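DATA SHEET
Item: assembly model
Revision: 1
Owner: S.N.
Input lines:
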Amino acid sequence: MPDTAGDDGLGPIWVLPLVVVAILLALAAAGLDGALRARSSGRSALSGSASPLAEVARLLVQRRRRTLNRDPVLHQVGILGLPLVALLMLTVVPIGDRPVLDLPVGVVWFNALDVVVWAVVWLAGWAPNSDFALIGGYRFLALAMAYELPLMFALTAPAVAAGSLRLTGVVAAQGGWWFAVWMPVAFAVYLLGVAGFAVWGPLSAPMGADLAGGVLVETSGPDRLLLLGGRYLLLVAGAAFAVPMFLGGGGGPLLPAWLWVVVKTAAVLAALVLLRRRLPTLRPDRFLEVGWVVLLPAALVQLLVVAIVVGTSGGDS
Amino acid sequence: MTDVLFWSLSVVAVVAGVTVFVVDSMARATYALAVSFVAVGATLVLVGSDYLGAVTVLMMVMEMAVMAVYMVMFMGMNPALMPMSMVHDKRLAIAVSVAVFVLLSAGVLAVPWPSRRGVPAVDPTTELGRDLMGDHMLVMMGVSVVMVATIVAGLVLALHRGRYQRFGDDLRTRSGHPRHGGGR
C-alpha cells in the first residue's frame, strides 16, 4: 500500500489524555516493581506497591544537590529530555485506530527518538561534573552501541512486512498473524532494545548500584524524579510502541480498540517489570560482543526471512 | 502556520549554528550543533520530506553522541567542562567562511531556478529511493560491502585484544576466562 503524505491524526488536543494515561501506566509499573521488591525482602506487597507515591512525595520536597563546576543548562536538558522523548514517542502510537500524530514515517520517528536518548542520558551523566555519573553516561553509550543496530533492524522487519513506515499501515498489515508470532526474534530484540533505552533490567548498568547510581548519583529532588519518571515513561513508550508494531494494534474481540491498546501495553509493561528481577545486569563491554556477534546477525536473518516471505507472497501484503 | 513554523525553525537552525562558535564549552558546542541539525530535520519534514527529515535527526544526534565519546577518548578525562575557545585560526577561518558564503549566496541568487514541471510524487520516500537506487543498485550493494569490509578491517587492526586472542586462531578454544584475555 503506498503511503500518502498528509496528517490524519487525532490532533494536539489529545496530547493531554495521552500524558495522563502514560503517567498512570508509569506509576502502575513502578508500583508493580515496588510490590515485587517488597515481597522479595519479606514485607507485604501492598505496602511496596504504594512506595512510588511516597517516593514521588519525598523527591518533590527534597533539596537539589549542586555539584561544583557543573553545567546547569545542559544538566536540565538531560533531565527534561527523558520524559519529553518518551512523550514524543507516544504521539505516533495509534490509540484505537488513529495516533495523535499520524506521520508517514512513524517507525523512523520512533527510531530517531530512541537515538536522542543517547544524547540525553550521556548529558545527564556528564553535566554534574562527577566521576561516577560520567562513567554511567559512557556505560550507556557503550550499551547503546550494542543494542541500537539490532534494534534498528528489529524495527525494520515489521515495516518491511507491512510495506509501510506509517504505524496505522503496520497495524493494518496484521489482520492475520500478529508480527510477534512470526517474527519472534525481531520482537525479542526489540524488547531488549526497550530495556536498553529505558536503562532497565539487564541493561541498567549506567544507573547501576556498583556506581552508586551512576547517571543518577548527583541528581536529587525534582530533578531525580524527572529522571526516574522519565525512565519509566520510556518503558511505557517502548511497551506502547510494541503494540502496533508486533501485537496487532487495537485488534481484539469485545473491547473497543483503544482499550485493547491500553491492555496490551500494560501486559508488555508488566512483562518488562517482571523480567527485570529475573535477569542479571550485563557488563557493558561483554554485552557489546553479544550485540554485534549474536543479536545483529540474528536480527538480520530475521529480516531476511521476512523479506523472503513478503517477496514470495507477491509483495502485496 | 506552516510558514511561521518554517521560518522559526530556520532561525533556530542558524542561531544554534552560530552558537557553536560562540560558546566556550565543547559539550555546549556539540549540543548546539545537534539542535541546529534537529531544526534542519524538522524543516525537511515541513517541506514534505518526512523520511529525510527523520533520518537527518536520527543520524546527526547519533553522530553528536559518538562525538562525545571521541571528545573524551582523545582529549583526556573531561576537557568539555573546561572553558575553551571553539574557533581556531580566526582570521583565515573568517575569510574562508565569508568567501564561501558569498559564493553560495551568489549561486542562489544568480542561478535561473527551473519552474516545477509535473506534480510532487504521492510518496516522496519511495520515489527518492527509486531515484537514488534504481539504476545504481549494483554499485550501491558493491560499495556497501566494501565499506563494511573496511570498517571490520580497521577494527581488527586497531583492536588491542579481540576474539582471536581469547578463543584461539580457529575460535575453538572454549574459554572466556579473564586469564586467557576474556576480561579486562
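QC remark: The radius of gyration of chain B is 23 Å.
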